[in-house]
């Protein structure tokens, strides 16, 4: 059972602190509609990326399952099958405790950017945002279900894939090293 406190803070039955606001609803819708053509092109690329990502993920998971089955049935001396494609992040085991704050911060920022993608995608399709909620290491946007039901499957896919598309673009931008100009590097030496 939820109890709503002042300021939009909710304390659900399970212990997760959630902050909820409607302050950005109009902004997402008006920005999305103002630049609708550009956003529709952008999120169409995202929908195509999403389709490819789902197919790739299924292939990776099937491959991982086959490797795991081979490990089970293969001889114990085979080191060739010990490589893993998917590795969970376990603080203290494969991530130092000193880096946990940065992992949580990065995860929170990525989740926020992901949800902004959904909100802008919805705005470009004329779907209002009911509210935005932020909780520990995540966020979500609640969209109008009535407006979503009126959209074609392709328009829905643009909204649904908008979040992962934004995360993929940020990931690609992160591959480019950020370095100061040569004059600054020379003065620091």
What series of H and E elements makes up the topology? EEEHHHEEHHH
Overall shape: globular
If you average the pLDDT, what whole number results? 81
Q: Can you count the beta strands? A: 5
State the end-to-end CA separation.
Answer: 60 Å
Spatial arrangement of strands, main beta sheet: 1-2-3-4-5
Instruction: Note poorly predicted spans.
Output: 1-7
So how many helices? 6
Indicate the radius of gyration in whole angstroms.
Answer: 21 Å
- Class from secondary-structure proportions: alpha+beta
Q: Tell me roughly what share of residues is in helical segments.
A: 55-70%
- Percent strand equals 5-15%
**Sheet of most strands:** 5 strands, antiparallel
Structure description:
- Residues 102-170 form the Peptidase M50 domain.
- Keywords: Membrane, Transmembrane, Transmembrane helix.
- It comes from Selaginella moellendorffii.
- It is found in: Endomembrane system.
- Its main location: membrane.
- By secondary structure, the protein is of the alpha+beta class.
- The protein has a domain at 3-47 and 96-174.
- 57% of the residues lie in helices and 12% in strands.
- It contains six helices and five strands, in the order βββαααββααα.
- It has helices at 25-34, 36-73, 100-124, 145-149, 153-174, 182-188; strands at residues 3-4, 9-11, 18-21, 129-135, 138-143.
- Strands 1-2-3-4-5 form a five-stranded antiparallel beta sheet.
- β4 (129-135) and β5 form a beta hairpin.
- α1 (25-34) packs across α3 and α3 packs antiparallel against α5.
- It starts with a strand and ends with a helix.
- Mean pLDDT is 81; it is low at 1-7.
